[in-house]
Each structure stands twice: as C-alpha cells, then as structure tokens.
Amino acid sequence: MKKLNKVAMMFAVAALATAAGAQTRVTAANGGPVIDNWQNGTSELVWKNGTNELCWRNANWTPATAAAGCDGALVPVAPPAAVTPAAPAPAPAPAAPAVAASKVTFAADAFFDFDKSVLKPEGRAKLDDLVSKIRDVNLEVIIAVGHTDSIGTDAYNQRLSVRRAEAVKAYLVSKGIERNRVYTEGKGEKQPVADNKTREGRAKNRRVEIEVVGTRANR
User: Fold this and answer.
1) Has this prediction a pTM greater than 0.70?
2) Residues of the domain holding 34
3) Which residue among 39, 66, 100, 194 is the one 20 to 30 A from 213 at the CA level?
4) What distance in Å separates the CA atoms of residue 74 and residue 57, rounded to the nearest whole number?
5) What average pLDDT does this structure show over 189-193?
C-alpha cells in the first residue's frame, strides 16, 4: 500500500509539472511572456522552495524564460543614453599684430659734413643700429625727411635737404630695406625746431628725421 502511495505521488508531481508547463505555454500563446518557472494554475504565483529563496523550474527553463524576481531572470538593461559629443571650443582668434611706429631724429652734423650730403661713418653706424632694430618689424614704410638751418637761400637749402634724405634712403636700401618702402622728403629751412639766430639753435635745425611704420607680431 505504501508503495502504491509513493507511485501515486510521483504521478501527481509529474502531472502537476506537465500542467504548469502547459499553463505557461498557453499564457505565452495568448500574448503574455513565456515563463518556465513553475506557477500556480492561474499564473499568479511562482512556486518557490521551502525557504522561499529559489523558484522551481520546469524542464523548459532557460535564463531567458525565468520569472521576474527568480534566480537567473534576465533583467532588461536600459541602453546607455546617447552622449552627444560637445562641440569643440572655437580656436581663439589670433592676436592682432601690434602696430610698431617710431620716430627718431638725428643731428645732421653727425650724418654729414657742413654743406654736404655724403654720409659720414658716424651717420652710417647710426643707420646700421636702426636697421638692426627693425628686423622683426613687418615694414610698411620708412619716412626720411631732411631739414636745414637758415644759412643760404631757401632754394639751396631745399635741394640740400632733399639730397641728404636721398643719401639716407640709398644707405638703407644697401642694407636690405626695399627701395619702395622708403619715402624721402626735403623741408629745407621751413620747419625749424629752434632759433636760427643762435649757433646752438641752427645746429638743432640741421637734422634728419626718420620715421618707421609697420607691425610687430605679439609675443
């Protein structure tokens, strides 16, 4: 009798497993998820072990068909949010080159002998120094203007001032300055900076003014 009871229980368990599997497939056929853990007859409850820790599985169980909350259930993972790459920061605008403009005045007596328009060694040395200082300048123009004192006629002084400015230009060109970058002008005695009645004043009026205009890159 006990043996018959054991056999009956085995058949009952097998029938129960078959019924649970059939119920699962029916649920899936009706559009619900396929679950291969054992459930009650109304698919409301998944059967668990005595400690309520593990879910019983039927013969078709796979991790993909595990009931939610049971061992091996696949929890859908939300795809990572698309990360829009940040637009690269615009490159800083290059700094505008600094305007370089300087004006120097040289005493004509240091450049020329009296009543002459030929550069003296001292004058050439001063122009060499000027050229070395403007090597890093993007040159636009050099303006050389000759001036005289009031001794002599206006016409003569005008021609002398022009010849002296041209002598300065010729020397600068010989040192590598482009000819078309050097502008010359003679003012004669028309623009004195001191009193022509004194010896000191006349010496100040005999002069050559050189102005350099260009741009120098910022460092």
Assistant:
1) no
2) 2-65
3) 194
4) 15
5) 94
